[in-house]
Structures
1.
Amino acid sequence: SKSAGRNAVRFFDPAMQAAVVARATLQRDLRHALRDGELRLFGQPVVDARAQVVGQEALLRWQHPLRGMVSPADFIPVAEQSGLILPMGQWVLRQACAQLAAWARAGGERAQWSLAVNLSPRQLRQPDFVDTVQAAWREAGADPRRLKLELTESLLLHDIEDTITKMEALAAQGIQFALDDFGTGYSSLAYLKRLPLAQLKIDRSFVRDLLEDPNDAAIARTILQLAKSLEMEVVAEGVETAAQFEALREMGCHLFQGYHFGRPAAL
Ligand code: C2E
Ligand code: CA
Ligand code: CA
Ligand code: CA
C-alpha cells in the first residue's frame, strides 16, 4: 500500500535540502549584517619596488556574532546571487571614500596612499553606476585620483560597449582601474587594449610557484611584457617570501602585495 507521495520521498535528497537551507540562512544573516553594522573593511598594503607602502586594497570582512570573522569567499557568492552585493558594494565604496578622506586629513605619507576597491560585475551593470561612484567620493570629500577600482575578467562576458563607456566616464573623473586575478579568466587581448586600465594584477596562483615552476615564471614575464607595451602597471599578488619579491622585482614588476609585506588588517 505505497502511496505516490511515499515513493516521491525516495528521490528527495536531504543533503541538497540542507544546502538550500544553509544558503537561505546565510542570506538572511547577511542582510542583517549589513543592517546591524557587522561588516568591516580591512586593508592590505600595496608596496613599491623599495617595499614602501603606496596604498592599500580594501577587503571586506563580516564580524559575525557567533561565527567570528567570516571570509568574503564564504559570503560574496551568496551576496552576488541574492543581489545583496549591490547595497553591500555601495557600503564598501562609501567606507573606502571616507577612509581616503581621513588619510588626506591626517596628512603625512598616508595622504598619498591609494585605496583599491573590489567590484562585482553586477555593480558595474547598474545603469546608475557612474553616478553612484561619483556621489560616494564627492560626499566623502575624497580625491578620486586615489580611488582604484578592481574588476575581474568575467566582466568581459557582458555588454562590453556599455562597460567601456562607464569605465571611461569614471576614468575621466580621475579614477583608475585594475584588472584583478589576471591570467585566470577570459581576457581577449583585443578587449584588453580597449579598456581604460591602469593596472594588471598577476594572480596569486602564478606567484606561488614562480621559483619552482618555469611555466609560472614565463607567464609572469609575459604579463609584464604585455603590460609594458600597453603602458600599464603590474601588481603581483600573493607575494609570501623575500625570494618571490626579488624574482618579480628583477622581472621589472612595479607593485607588490602579499603576506610578506602585510596581512589584511583593520583599516
Ligand atoms: P582578491 O581581490 O583576489 O583579494 C586578494 C585575496 O588574497 C584576499 O583574500 C587576501 O587576503 C588574499 N591574500 C593576500 N595576500 C596573500 C598571500 O600572500 N597569500 C595568500 N595565500 N593569500 C593572500 P580575501 O580577503 O579572503 O578576499 C577574497 C576575495 O573576496 C577577494 O579576492 C575578492 O575577490 C573578494 N572580495 C573581498 N572584498 C570584496 C569586496 O568588497 N567586494 C567584492 N565584490 N569582492 C570582495
Ligand atoms: Ca582584488
Ligand atoms: Ca586578486
Ligand atoms: Ca582572487
2.
Amino acid sequence: MDARANNAPRPLGLLAELTHRCPLGCPYCSNPLALEARADELDTATWARVFREAAALGALQVHLSGGEPGARRDLVDITQAAHDAGLYTNLITSAVGITPEAFAKLSDAGLDHVQISIQDSEPGSADHIAGYKGAYARKAALAAQVTRLGIPLTVNAVMHRANIDHVEGMVALALKLGAKRVEIAHVQYYGWALKNRARLMPTREQVERAVKAVETLRLRHHGEIVIDAVVPDYYARFPKACVGGWGRRSLNVTPSGRVLPCHAAESIPALTFWNVREHSLADIWDNSPAFMAFRGTGWMQEPCRSCPKREEDFGGCRCQAFALTGDARATDPVCHLSPRHALVAELAEMREDAAYDYRR
Ligand code: SF4
Ligand code: FES
C-alpha cells in the first residue's frame, strides 16, 4: 500500500453524507440519532473542494449518500464537481425524491453508478419497513430509468427479522430490475438499529436458512448477477474488518463537514472530529486525533494485541466494541476470543415484536 509521509495509508473512497434529510424512516438508518440540520449543511463549493482534496489524497471513488441525497437541490452540481475531480461517482439513494428529469441531469453530469435500497421484495412490507407509503413503486421506477440509461445498478437489501426469509425474492427482484449486483447486508447494530435491535434481530435458524439460500442463488445465477453477502455480526465467530480498518481505506464527511473514520464514529464520545471548514482533508486524514485513535494495531489490548488475525480484521468494529462494552479499545465482542463474547449470544436471544422506532 502507498504510504504518506507519516506512514498513514491512503483512502480509496469517500462517503459524502450530503444531508441527513430523508423522507423515509428506516428503523436501522445508519445516520446518528442526533441528525444534523439543513442550515448547517456544507455548500456546493465546499463539497467541490472536498472532492478535489479527496482525489489528491488518493481516493478513487465518492459515494454520494445521506439521508437522501436527492433532498439537495444542488445534487447535479455536486455530482458534476465529483466527476470533474476525477472520482468515480456512486449515488446511494432511497429513490424517493429523485424525479425522472433530475435523474436524467445526474446522468448527464457523469454519474457512474447507482445503489438503490429496497426494504423488501413484497411492496406492502417494503413500505412498512421504510415508513413511507408508495416507496417501493418509486424505487422500481427509478431502477428502470437507471438501467435504461445504461448506468450500472446495485440493489442494497438490508436484512433483518422481517425480511430475511425473503432473500430469494430480493435476488429475483434485483434481477427483474436489471441490477448487476445485489448486496445482502445485515443490519449493523449502532444508532437507530441499536434502538430497534430487539425488533430487528433475526433468529439463528433464519440466518442459517439465509446463508444456505445465498449459496444456492449464487450457483443458480452465476454470470447474471453478483450476490454480496456476509454473515450478520451477532452470529459470526470472527468480526469483520469494519470499514477495512480504522483510518485505513475510507473516510466519511457529515453534512456539516465533520470528518469521521466511519459513519458511526460519533457514537464514541471520547473522540473529537475535525471539520473540512477549518482543515484540509489531508491534514484531517494524517493528523486528526479521531483518525489517529485506532489506526493500525498499536492501540490494541489483549487478546487482539498478540492475535495473528490483528492485521486482517483490526480487532473488529470500534463502534460495536464501545456500544457493547463501554470501551472502544476492547476486542469486538463478536469475536469468539473476546472475554465478553457471551454477551453477544445473550443479546441475539433478546427479541420483541413492538412497533419500530422509526428514524424521524
Ligand atoms: Fe480479530 Fe482481535 Fe478476535 Fe484476533 S482477538 S480474531 S484480532 S478481534
Ligand atoms: Fe465504526 Fe465499525 S462502525 S468502526
3.
Amino acid sequence: HIIDLRATQILDSRGRPTLSVTLTLAGGATGWAGVPSGASTGSKEAVELRDGDMSRYGGAGVTKAAAGITGSIFHRLKGRPWHSLADVDQALIELDGTAAKSRLGGNATVGVSMATARAVAASQGQQLWEFLTPYTVRPRLPVPHFNLVSGGLHASNQLDFQEFMIAPIGAPSMAEAVRAGAEIYAVLHGNLAAAGRPTGQGDDGGLAPDFTHPREVLAALVEAIDGAGYTPGLDQVAIALDPAASRFRRGDGAYQVADERLSTLELIELYEELAADYPIWSIEDGLAEDDTEGWRQLTDRLGERLQLVGDDVFVTNPTVIEQGIAARIANAALIKVDQVGTVTETLQAMEVCRKHDYARMVSHRAGETVDDFIAELAVASGCGQFKSGAPARGERVIKYNRLMHIAAQRPDLPYGLGEG
Ligand code: PGA
Ligand code: ZN
C-alpha cells in the first residue's frame, strides 16, 4: 500500500525546475526520486509537463506536474494493494491516457515510478539494483563513458558534435575505470589551459574549448589519454561520440559540420574516416532522427565495425525500438528513463534490445539531480555500458561513485562490456 506521495519543485543541474518525488509505503519504507531533463530531446519523447507561466522560470516551472502527483496520481494509487512496480506503472499509463504522457507529464510519471521502485526495494531489504535485476539477466558493472568535451546544445562553443567520450574498456575494475577517466580529464584540462584555451564546462561537465572541427577534439583526446599514461585503443581506452546530429541538420537536409555542409553520405564518410584515424568504437545519433534512409545506409556501411546507438531515433520506447530494429537501423539503443516515462517501459525497451542483440547504454540527461537511479539501472540490466557525463561535478560523479560503492560491496560482479 502507498500511504504517502509528495512532490516538490526543485532545481536541476542546469538551474531549471524539476521534480523531487517522495513515496511512502505502509510499513514505513520510503523512496525518493529526482527527475532528469534533457536539453537536446527527440520528438517522440514523453512530454514534460511545464507550467508555461512566462513570469516564473521562463515558463519552465513544474508546479502543475507536482500538483498532478499529489492530486490525481496519489488519489489513484493510495489505499490499494499493488502487486508490483509494473502494476503501479500500468496505472500511471492508464491514468494519463495519452501516447506521450502529455496529460500528467512524463516528468511526473517517471518521478513516481522511480520513487516507487526505490520504496519497494527498501521494503524488501534489497539494493535498488538487486530489485531491478530481471531474473533472466546477470548484473554487471558497466564501462563508464566519460564525456570529456562538450559541444552542440550542451555548450556555447563552436563544436557541432555534442559529446566526445572516453571509455576505459580495458580497465581491470570499476575503480580503475573511474581513475582512468578522472586522470585523463585532468590531463586534458591541463593541456587546454597550457595552450591558453578556455576550460569552462558544458552542461554535463565536459570541457568546452574553442575547437571547431571534431578532428581537433579527437587529437586532443588521444594526446590526453597518452599523457595520462594510458593506451588509446579499441580494447584499451576507446572513444565514443554522440554527435546528436538532429541538432546540426539544416532545413534542406544538409548537415553543417564546422564550416562544411555535408550530405548524409558525406557525413557517413566523415565518420568512416574519423574511425579509421582514431580509436572510435561507438557513435550515437550519427544522423538526424528523421533521416531514416540515411540511418539505414549508416548501419549497412558501418554497423559491422562500429556500435551505432539510437537516442533521439529510439527515445527508449519499446515500440519505436521494435520498428527501428525491423527497419535495420542502428545496432544499439541509448536508455533514458524519462524519455519513455516509467521504469517498467524502460525495462521493456531494454528487453526488446536484448532479444534482438541490440546493445544498450544507460544514460543521464543534460539536466540532472543527485539521484543515482541510473547507476543502479545500469548494473541491474547487465548491459555493460553507462554514460553520466564528465568525471566531475556532483550530479555526474554521484552516479560513478555509486558504481564504485556497488563494486566495493560486491567484488563478485564482473566489470566490462560483457556480451553486450
Ligand atoms: P540530453 O543529452 O539530455 O540533452 O538529451 C544527452 C544525450 O543526448 O545523450
Ligand atoms: Zn544523445
